[in-house]
Amino acid sequence: MSGAGTPGFSAATISALVASPSEARGPFLPVNEYLQAFREDYARPEVTTFDKLECGQHFQEPGFSSWEAFDRGAWQESVDLLQEARPAIKRQFDDAESRGLVLRRARYVELPPSDYLVWEMAVLDERVRRGERIRVVVGQGRPGFQAPPPDGFPNLSFSGTSASMS
Prior knowledge:
By secondary structure, this protein is α/β, with parallel strands linked by helices. It has helices spanning 11-19, 22-25, 31-43, 65-71, 75-99, 115-129; strands spanning 49-54, 102-110, 133-139, 156-159, 162-165. The chain is built from six helices and five strands.
């Protein structure tokens, strides 16, 4: 994922956002409330750019069959199901394009990445292919080692505070 054309996203920006006092960030939302707020904000017709900052190293996405397979440890099935999700992802990006909506995301990742993040990189790879501007900012707060991801998941190439996918 290359964020070269994504102004405003940097390690310093994300660090400042993450370090801001909780009252400045707003309330913590449980997943169902977060998803509802996200959908409402995304659908607003006056929105022309949608920026998303993601810092969680774990997340639950019940109802998304690829995530459910990943959560059961069925890595290959999760990859196969992600392929089946491509038409829905394409529809989302076709809708965004027709509205003139620019989608940008900053993804903060701690090393070694959690299994969830390894899975999510496959999802983000598809989103990049559809035109979402994604920058991955890497933190190194947890030393350790993780085995390579399972077959079918993209390779992550870390360089400084950015990452690329292949």
